[in-house]
UniProtKB/TrEMBL annotation:
Signal peptide residue numbers: none
Family: Belongs to the protein-tyrosine phosphatase family.
One example GO MF annotation: phosphoprotein phosphatase activity
Record PANTHER family: TYROSINE SPECIFIC PROTEIN PHOSPHATASES DOMAIN-CONTAINING PROTEIN, TYROSINE-PROTEIN PHOSPHATASE
Domain Tyrosine specific protein phosphatases: 111-182
Superkingdom, taxonomy of origin: Bacteria
TM regions (residue ranges): none
The protein's name: Tyrosine specific protein phosphatases domain-containing protein
Species assigned in the record: Tersicoccus phoenicis
């Protein structure tokens, strides 16, 4: 399900992203009881769902999970977009599937990203799992913001995004997606190169701290986020 701990990524000036504090994934309904037990053992206490209302819920092919494995989780629903928004539909229809449109998504809904970053900064003790459906672009957009705020180099952020792209492609090998199809290795390499270019361009033009503070993020949230998600 394309889940991983982002701990260990380098932070400019020394240090790294703290282990066990920030995780990313695709839709968690595919995770088994054993998977949830392991994730809880890794310290996850908060789950932030970036999907829209019509995307959430269990499918017949999903794992059946023991309730005990989910007890006590702090769950938040925080969609990054409004799929009915006219301009968004014109830009990103049928859905956000490339960093080419990250800047537009940030421009349209800054208040949504302020809320998400606030939620991460102020979550109960423990790790935070951020997820969408495929674990690639909406998750990638939020993770991009968080990692830039922490001082992770652009190339390392792009490397992390690439892992998500390649993992999502493997998922398309075995599922019948309504829009996307599995890419051959040659097609995938070309797509990765294109998406990395878009992501790196976005990062070069973005000052995440300035963007969020101007949109209403409290400075103390930024301080709390950095203290929470980095280690020496």
């Amino acid at each position: 399900m394309n889940v991983r701990d982002l701990g260990g990524l380098p932070v400019a000036g020394g240090g790294r992203v703290a282990h066990g504090q920030l995780f990313r994934s695709g839709r968690p309904e595919t995770m088994t009881t054993a998977g949830w037990v392991q994730l809880r053992a890794d310290g996850v206490s908060t789950v932030i769902d970036l999907r829209n209302d019509d995307e959430r819920g269990r499918r017949s092919s999903d794992a059946v999970v023991d309730d005990e494995a989910l007890d006590g989780l702090h769950r938040l629903v925080r969609p990054t977009e409004d799929p009915t928004h006219v301009e968004f539909k014109q830009l990103c229809w049928p859905y956000l599937n490339t960093p080419k449109y990250y800047a537009d998504n940030l421009r349209l809904w800054p208040e949504r990203f302020v809320r998400i970053v606030h939620d991460v900064a102020t979550a109960p003790p423990g790790g935070v799992l951020v997820h969408c459906s495929g674990g690639r672009d909406r998750t990638g957009l939020v993770v991009m913001l968080l990692l830039q705020l922490l001082g992770v180099p652009d190339e390392a952020i792009a490397d992390d995004y690439e892992v998500g792209v390649r993992a999502a492609n493997e998922r398309f090998r075995v599922i019948n997606h309504p829009v996307e199809r599995y890419r051959t290795p040659e097609q995938l390499d070309a797509w990765v190169a294109e998406t990395r270019t878009h992501l790196l361009r976005t990062l070069a033009e973005l000052d995440a701290a300035d963007y969020l503070l101007r949109a209403g993020l409290a400075p103390e949230d930024l301080d709390a986020l950095r203290a929470r998600l980095t280690e020496a």
